[in-house]
Amino acid sequence: MIKLIECPRDAMQGFPNFIDTAIKAAYINQLLQIGFDTIDFGSFVSPKAIPQMRDTAEVLEYLDLFESKSKLLAIVANTRGAEDALHFEQIDYLGFPLSISETFQQRNTNKSIKDAMVAVEEIQNLTEVKGKTLVTYLSMGFGNPYGDPYAPEMVAEFVEQLEQLGVKIISFADTVGTANVDLIKELFELNIQGYPHIEFGAHFHARPDQVEEKVLAAFHAGCLRFDGALKGFGGCPMAKDDLVGNVATEKLIQSLEKEGQTLSLNKQELEEAMKMVDFVFR
């Protein structure tokens, strides 16, 4: 069964104008009506690092979860953030960005990869105690622009370490939109076959004309978990290409439905959310 993860947090976090808390909550409440498996709704990180997410706890208070089947995911960058997030019963998943690139790990979380792996272990233990689930994102999972070492075999080594820690969900992140179809196919086939008990996901950043080929390459390699953001808002500023953003959820849906997949989404509620997007990101 395909799982779609809608990521308003990723869409919003780099937006230059602060989005009012009530507007954030109204938008996320609309997303909760569509039928996505999970909503990546906010993050518990330093407000100095990500000012847009400083009101995540407040947003949570306004969310109406009673009639929604969607689960909530919050991003954390350290153990303290995880402890803060775990105070809220409404949150089902914690997401942690672990990078294949040493340079990006330092830039993104102010940690070395070694220290970040220690944080992963600590957060994994905390989530297990609280009955929650850790989602580990392997940033720069398809290469990096810094000249740091990279190979698919390195990704597999990271997966092996995470498997030993008991991590059950790993999402490969194409952080700067450089993944090609062959690499996507290789990476997912290698790891899905090697670790059948781990759920692997795809968090792609892509130009609009590359969305379908990347999504279908992962799907045909066995990936059943996909992140997206309506209209493709967000993405990594280090891509240095204004057209490289998050995979537009509507294009993701279209690509998978063309393959005959039934996604069980409320299309009317999806249309309403699409109407809200331009108001939220004005």
UniProtKB/TrEMBL annotation:
Keywords: Lyase, Metal-binding. GO terms for molecular function: lyase activity. Transmembrane segments: none annotated. Residues 1-271 form the Pyruvate carboxyltransferase domain. InterPro entries: Aldolase_TIM, HMGL, PYR_CT. SUPFAM superfamilies: Aldolase. Belongs to the HMG-CoA lyase family. This is Hydroxymethylglutaryl-CoA lyase.
